[in-house]
Design brief:
Length: 444
């Protein structure tokens, strides 16, 4: 057994052996099920132009170590992307890993007007139908999309177009697209083996995340599969001269944690959860390392590492897969928030203030994992909160009032057990540009 396999086996034994941590660490009662769950991370191949197989190795090993089962490889029209996809599959195979990959066709990029356009999709799929690291579901290669609801491939309907493109006369696949359509139309689309609700990952207004978008899909899918979206953040800042995207979705109130808790609470209905994303820097919801080629997003991404969310992710993935929250063996602090006031004006930023900017509060969002009761303190300048916490997971919010540096600590029996001073977590009143990205930090 290679080193990666040994490590993953150890990780699984450790996590599963932890069992229930008690009521303080269980936000709500869970009904365990025997159905297998999969956690997938959406991966933008368009940001991998300079990638080598070693880069893919690093990402696969890191993702697998956190409990992620597969990458959904978002592919578009760039002629070099098939070569990066080939590298990804080669890397997974060379590692001897159980980690899987599958294609997610980005139909906002790929053409789909004629049946001839389907050739590109088929050419992408063909080499990996029987690859040992191809993600299989119900015995078939899994295939997904981003969008594609306007595609007809020369046919008269959405269903006929996709059926002619991917299924009719082709090797069998398990097709779970993300079509932005009314779920009431699902009964007329037998080409779908399931559906992915992309926009379920964020609230679409100034309110907390809820399960309504999922329920609307589940009610129309019948026995077909449902893949839920989950995402920590959303901010994009492109002007009309580029992608013309400049808005936020509401990430307040511990969005990432709240969304996972909803999925865990409803896990009997969900076999597949897709994290949006591993590396979409342009929309600020990346959880992996910042490397590869940024899509001109440097002004709001550079210096904003999000890997602090990865260890928190482990806690929720275990609960999603097993129905049990793992015991906490180490005290941890997770902090995130914006570095600049939402109401600040930046006259030099020609793109302008993002749409929906008023949906977010100037706050630090803290999650604390305690193996035993303790005193938690988080502060930034004159704003300070100190509370006695029970063992388990706790959430706290700290308002940000003025220029300051964020610090946090855990004391137990008057002894410091965690002193956390995250480098770079400084709230400033004078942003150089409109930057609504999250700064994320986690204690060792």
């Amino acid at each position: 057994m290679n080193r990666l396999a040994l490590y993953l086996a150890f990780l699984l034994r450790f996590l599963l052996a932890s069992g229930f941590p008690g009521d303080a660490q269980t936000p709500f009662g869970l009904e365990a099920t025997v159905s297998q769950k999969f956690v997938i991370a959406h991966f933008i191949v368009g940001n991998t132009y300079p990638y080598t197989i070693n880069d893919w190795n690093q990402d696969i090993v890191l993702a697998a170590s956190k409990g992620i089962d597969a990458f959904a490889l978002n592919v578009g029209r760039d002629p070099w992307q098939p070569f990066r996809v080939a590298d990804a599959y080669a890397a997974a195979k060379s590692l001897g890993s159980s980690f899987k990959l599958f294609l997610s066709f980005d139909m906002s990029s790929l053409p789909c007007a004629s049946l001839g356009d389907a050739t590109t999709l088929r050419n992408f799929m063909e080499p990996y139908q029987n690859h040992p690291n191809q993600f299989m579901y119900n015995g078939k290669p899994f295939v997904s999309t981003f969008a594609g609801e306007s595609c007809r491939f020369g046919a008269g309907s959405l269903n006929d177009g996709w059926n002619n493109a991917l299924k009719s006369g082709q090797p069998a696949i398990y097709f779970v697209p993300s079509f932005f359509v009314d779920p009431a139309t699902f009964p007329s689309m037998p080409v779908m083996d399931g559906a992915f609700q992309w926009n379920s990952a964020w609230p679409m207004g100034n309110y907390d995340i809820n399960f309504s978008p999922d329920s609307s899909y589940l009610s129309k899918l019948g026995k077909r599969s449902y893949m839920a979206g989950v995402s920590p953040w959303f901010f994009t800042h492109y002007g009309p001269d580029t992608y013309n995207k400049n808005w936020i979705y509401r990430g307040d109130n511990w969005l990432f944690a709240q969304r996972w808790e909803l999925l865990i609470q409803n896990r009997n209905s969900i076999a597949l959860a897709q994290i949006i994303t591993w590396n979409d820097y342009g929309e600020s919801h990346y959880i992996g390392p910042i490397h590869g080629a940024q899509p001109n997003s440097q002004s709001w991404v550079t210096g904003f590492d999000h890997q602090g969310w990865l260890d928190l992710l482990v806690y929720y993935i275990v609960a999603f897969k097993t129905g049990q929250y793992p015991a906490i063996s180490r005290d941890r602090i997770f902090l995130w928030g914006r570095l600049y006031p939402a109401q600040a004006t930046v006259s030099s930023d020609r793109v302008g203030r993002p749409l929906n900017w008023q949906w977010t509060q100037d706050s630090v969002w803290a999650i604390v994992l305690l193996k035993a009761p303790g005193q938690f303190t988080v502060s930034c300048g004159s704003s300070k909160k100190s509370v006695a916490l029970s063992a388990g997971l706790s959430k706290l919010q700290l308002p940000l009032l003025s220029t300051c540096t964020v610090t946090a600590s855990i004391f137990r029996n008057n002894i410091s057990v965690v002193a956390f001073n995250p480098s770079g977590f400084q709230f400033r009143a004078d942003p150089p540009t409109y930057n609504f990205n999250a700064f994320v930090a986690s204690s060792p």
